[in-house]
Amino acid sequence: MSELVVRRLLIDLETPLPRHWCAGDAFRTAFFNSLSMSFPVGEQFFIDAVRNGLKALPTEQQAPFQAEVQGFIGQEATHRRIHSLFNQHLETQGLVNDWAPRAERNMQLLAGTNPRHALAVTAANEHFTAIFAEWLLRNPELLEPCEPRLKTMWLWHCAEESEHKATAFDVYAALDGSHAWRIKWFRRITFVFLSDTLRQTVNNLRRDGSLWRWTTWTSAASFLFGQRGLVRQTFRPWRAYLRRDFHPNQQANELSGRWLADNAPLYTVVSRPGQAT
Ligand SMILES: [Fe+2]
Ligand SMILES: [Fe+2]
Description:
The protein is mainly α. Helices cover about 65% and strands about 5% of the residues. The protein contains ten helices and two strands.
């Protein structure tokens, strides 16, 4: 069981933000903006999936998960709130979120089905966010020079994603979710997640007027495929999920604890495991 602390981030998200807030780089900014656009809807889905999964367990098996699930819900609810505030700036800048309504329609297809489906979808997404988080915490210079408030927002979110990466997976396992379903959903989510990220990033670049600039795509090439690129550094941890004996805690997460320890003045603790939120 993980001890999940819920934290309130102490950053100002009211003062307007620069359009290319990530190092003045159009591609990186559009990519991060795209991910943020999916969070409020996606994270609500994860909260519901884990909550419903816990309820589906026999009563006597629920107790060991109560505190962790409570922490998971508290962390994701805080992420939703912060990213909703950030997303309002993107709307003001003229960007249009096409991803969220499409994701909402897709999620509706799972309503009323066996709770293991939504949990397997959540565990797959949580694996994506955990390997992305570990990668960004290992390469924080990708956010340099960047609006400090946003650098804090992204690294805080990454640290907490790394902390709670096993919750959905463990509830799925406690419900005897099968390996076959876990892998089936992971393959589907890989396709959907990558294509949705790409679509929304291109959409953001088009509205921003940066889509056809040469520098946009040279930046994309190094961000994705360079020496420290996202695809290059996350392919192996992505593939590990396919193993029958995979567990999220087998993957690195020491950077998360270090960031949280080094940046304690940037947040307050709202609740600790076992406390009411
Ligand atoms: Fe999150
Ligand atoms: Fe998460």
